[in-house]
Amino acid sequence: MTFKDDWLKIKTTLEQGQASTLYCSIATVNDDGTPHITPVGTVFLRDNHSGYFFDHYAESLGKNIDRNPNVCIMAVNAGRFFWFRSLISGRFVAPPGIRLYGKASAMREATKEEIKAIEYRVKPSKWMKGARLLWTNFTHVRDIEFTDYKPVTYPMMMNGMWSENT
Question: What's the rounded Cα separation, in Å, for the pair 60 and 28?
């Protein structure tokens, strides 16, 4: 199995993690070489081993990417029922998390389809004042070309869940 062969599982794992916490963590490198992690709730994966996120509020994230495009995105399923079922059975019912490595692009204007996707994601919360303040006026995205991945692993509870190469 390879990165491309595991893509559907990678995509599902990231989506489940993001759904359980409402965000993914995106790691970048500050200009002094220290790591910087930003929670971003607007990460979307495509079927072609790439993705994008809306670059909206995170000032340091964008500056870091402009200087060094290497990123790592991590999502972990934090759902209580997911963990309860897994701990009771002694085996994860699905992969608990994923790290994706790649390069992010310069900021570009979002397409109509991308704006439609984010509007669909935040629609259930639009009635709340805070949601309207935070999750409106999305206009720009950064593409990410993924090159590798590493599952979040707990070997005692997930034998055979990923290909042997990971």
Answer: 9
Burial of 16 (0-12, 13-18, 19+ CB in 10 A): buried
| Options 3.40.50.1980, 2.30.42.10, 3.40.30.10, 2.30.110.10; CATH of 7-154 | 2.30.110.10
Taken in order 32, 50, 75, 157, is the CA torsion positive or negative?
negative
Q: What is the pLDDT along the chain (166 residues), one digit of tens a residue?
A: 578 888 999 999 999 999 999 999 999 999 999 999 999 989 999 999 999 999 877 789 999 999 999 999 999 999 999 999 999 999 998 899 999 999 999 999 999 999 999 888 888 877 888 777 777 788 899 999 999 999 998 878 887 777 654 4
This prediction's pTM: 0.89
Question: How far apart (Å, rounded) are the C-alpha atoms in residues 53 and 100?
Answer: 14
